[in-house]
Amino acid sequence: MISVSNAVVRYPGARDNALDGASLEALPGRITAVVGPNGSGKSTVVRTLIGQVELTSGAMRVGAVDVAMADRRLLARTLAVVTQREELAFPLPVREYVMFGRYPHHGAWSALGAADDRLVDAAALRVGASDLLDRRTDELSGGEWQRARLARALAQGGDVLVLDEPGTFLDVAHEMALFELLDGLAREGRTILLVSHQLNLVARFAAHIVLLDHGRVVAAGTPADVMRGDVLEPVYHWPLVVSRDPAVGAPVLVPLRKR
Amino acid sequence: MLLAVALVAACAAGLALGPVPIGLGDVARALVGVGEPQAIAIVRDLRLSRMVLAIITGAGLGMSGAALQGTLRNALAEPYLLGVSGGAAVGAVLAVVAGLTTAIALPVAAFAGALSAVVLVLLIARAARGRADPRILLMAGVVVGAFANAAIMVLLAGAGEGTVRNALWWMMGSVAGADWSTIRWLALYAIGGAAALVAVARDIDLLALGEDAAAGLGVHVARATRRIFLLAALLAAVTVAGAGLVGFVGLIVPALARALGARRARVVLLASAVLGAALVVGADVVARTVRAPAELPLGAVTALIGVPFFLVRLRRVS
Lengths: 259, 318
Known about the structure:
Chain A is 31% helix and 25% strand. With 259 residues, chain A is α/β, with parallel strands linked by helices. With 318 residues, chain B is mainly alpha-helical. Chains A and B meet through helix 2 and strand 6 of A and helix 9 and helix 10 of B.
């Protein structure tokens, strides 16, 4: 699980806190989504978890481990992160790329072995990327690349998975396939923390939604609690209506036109 | 395998060819100390020391470039872009202007200049951002390099003709000044730096994915970037201290290693070491045989050999 308590982050030179006393929890076995407008602090949560940003005060824990004190390599064995953007400087065969997920389990001189190969195969199989392993990273489509990245994250072997905007650049079918896959991974007992702008998809797949605004949690709860016009409108500063989708029964957000 | 053959061939040619050609059999005998005293002297004292310095220079520049290109995620990154060459040149020119041109003083001055430039680059980057941001590092390196060039021009503007000539020759690169006592020190530093770089090869692999992705895989990004940067600079400084400025090796050798199929950082580093050594040893052979007994500047020859290689490779890719 991931727990964030009273997290405050202020970037050097910034006027406002990027995170301003935010607390949230992501429990195993379900998808927890963090939503909110651009600049609300969503990505700061992720970047703090991976040690790229330091907490000014408060705490973030993965399981029992305080991320501020953690040995980064040991933490990467529990916590896998699929960041917003990742572009390889030099293309690789996908198998070697997925193998990077095994690096946190090895020191500088210990060799990657047959056990690592098997884990790479298993991770690729789980996300339906087995047929990609022999291709090159620069030959993949957006959806294939996203699956390769998920395979790499699973190969890390941990049970906590954080994804920052994983649906960007994906078409409807790939987007749905990705969310169903994440749903399946959560049902196997993993903790999944999802940062996303796709409120309607999140409402269908996440068990728990945390709404951030100006680095503060302004609402948290089930999709029914958060997906409400009176909750979302003041945060997004745009006229919205939330209705119930007749086919799937989930709340659906429809932004209105101002003119 | 192919690379090792190329290196051995280049080395054999390096020992055999020169103003006084010596057969390969005699070279082998001379190496173990058998045969004509004159052949032994030429092979052991002149050509072997040059060759070892050429190997250190090529391998050092190749590895330095390979590490930087991966870490900075930029195929155009090379050791000289980081202010290393500029700083070393300022150090060397200062030494020349001050009349300190002994076999010890010049390398020490160049080495000190290179390291000061690197420290300056790191300080600028730190002041600008507080982090080891690759783009800021590159920009700081370019700025320090430009400043160094200006300093050199100022220093040489008031210098005598002989001083200018000495400084110019140093800047064109050469392994002719090889001297065993210096080489021993350089080799020690180079081997240490190279081993340390190979030890952080996995960090280089992950940093090539981007900072956040690397951090997610357990890399302490700022610390690892700084460490790799310093090691790469140290290796480049060693080569500059021994051989002056030998351009193009750090840029082209990692690209060639990758073109030959090296992908993981450790393989790219090792292949770049061998390939760089072969290139500089070969270039030195060309430099001292084409217009013998006069010598061509080594830095010019590496570029003359490297550019066509690079172009052929580019054509095949596109």
